[in-house]
Design brief:
- There is one protein chain.
- By secondary structure, the protein is of the alpha+beta class.
- The protein has one domain: Alpha-Beta Plaits, CATH 3.30.70.
- It is built from 5 helices and 5 strands, in the order αααβαββαββ.
- A 5-stranded mixed sheet has the order 1-2-3-5-4.
- α1 packs antiparallel against α2.
Length: 268
C-alpha cells in the first residue's frame, strides 16, 4: 500500500513539473529554433542574390546583411546565459584530468557525508581513459560536478535526498569537426534516490540558468520505487548546450518535442 501511495505522489509531483515545463521553460526551445530558422532564411536569401545571373542589388544586399548582423547580435546576447561556460584551452594530460576529477569527487563525498547522504563508490568516468583527453571530457567533468553540487545544495534545504546512485557521461568520443555546428549537446545521466517531493525542486533548479549551472534540457526521465521506505529512484538524462551563432546551420538545434521524452515507468 505504501509503495502504491509513493508512486501516486511521484506521479502527481512529476505531472506538476511537466506542466510548469510546458508553460515556462519551452520558450527557450522555441526561441533557439526560431533564431536558427530566421538565420537559415537570411543566409539563403543572401546566397541566392550572389548566385543569381544578375548582379545583386546593392541596397537590398546591404539590408539583408544588416538584418543578419542584428540577428547575430540578438542571438549572442540570448545564448550568453544558456551556454556551457568554456575555457580558452583544455589540457590533454590524462594524469591531470584524473587527478582533478578524483579531488573534486572527494570533496563531493565529504560534503555528502556531512549531511548524511550516501554516494556510490563509482561515479563518472571509468578507469580506462584515452591517452589524450579531449574537450568533451573536460566539459563533461565541469557539468557533472556542477550537477552534483546542485543536488547537495538542494539537499541542505529540502533534506529529502537520500542517495546519489549513478553519474554517467554519454557520447564523449566525438569526432573532430572541421566546422563548428550551430549547436552541440553534452549529455549525462544522473540517478538519485529521494522523496517524491524532492524531484520537482531538482528539476526546477536545473531548468533555468544560474551562476553554477548553464541551461539544461531534460531529454529522458524515469521513476521507480526506491530501496528505502517512501522513496523513489529517479533517472534523468540531461543535456547542456553550446550554441554557436556563426556555426553550421544544417543540424536541428533541438527536437520540436524536446523535453522529457519518456513517460515515467512505474515499476513495482
Amino acid at each position: 500500500m505504501l509503495k502504491k501511495q509513493t508512486l501516486w505522489i511521484g506521479g502527481i509531483v512529476l505531472g506538476t513539473w511537466l506542466l510548469a515545463w510546458v508553460i515556462f521553460l519551452r520558450p527557450y526551445h522555441r526561441d533557439i529554433s526560431n533564431f536558427q530558422q530566421k538565420m537559415k532564411l537570411l543566409h539563403a536569401n543572401i546566397s541566392g542574390l550572389y548566385q543569381s545571373e544578375y548582379p545583386p542589388y546593392p541596397k537590398l544586399l546591404d539590408q539583408l546583411e544588416e538584418q543578419n548582423k542584428t540577428l547575430l547580435n540578438q542571438l549572442q546576447s540570448f545564448v550568453e546565459n544558456l551556454n556551457i561556460p568554456l575555457k580558452e584551452r583544455y589540457p590533454t594530460s590524462v594524469v591531470e584530468f584524473r587527478g582533478q576529477w578524483d579531488e573534486q569527487l572527494r570533496q563531493i563525498r565529504q560534503q555528502a557525508n556531512s549531511i548524511g547522504i550516501a554516494v556510490e563508490e563509482k561515479l563518472g568516468f571509468s578507469q580506462a581513459l584515452p591517452s589524450n583527453i579531449s574537450e568533451p571530457y573536460w566539459i563533461a567533468e565541469d557539468l557533472g560536478i556542477a550537477i552534483l553540487q546542485q543536488l547537495l545544495e538542494l539537499a541542505t534545504t529540502q533534506k529529502e535526498l537520500k542517495k546519489i546512485n549513478q553519474l554517467n557521461f554519454l557520447d564523449l568520443e566525438q569526432a573532430p569537426m572541421a566546422t563548428q555546428p550551430f549547436l552541440r549537446q553534452f549529455k549525462l545521466e544522473i540517478v538519485f534516490e529521494s522523496s517524491p517531493a524532492f524531484v520537482p525542486f531538482f528539476l526546477q533548479s536545473i531548468s533555468k540558468p544560474s551562476n553554477r549551472l548553464p541551461y539544461l534540457t531534460v531529454s529522458e526521465m524515469t521513476m521507480t520505487i526506491g530501496s528505502q521506505a517512501d522513496t523513489i529512484s529517479t533517472k534523468c538524462i540531461l543535456a547542456g548546450l553550446i550554441i554557436n551563432p556563426t556555426g553550421k546551420l544544417e543540424a536541428k538545434p533541438l527536437d520540436s518535442s524536446s523535453g522529457p521524452q519518456s513517460v515515467p515507468i512505474w515499476e513495482k
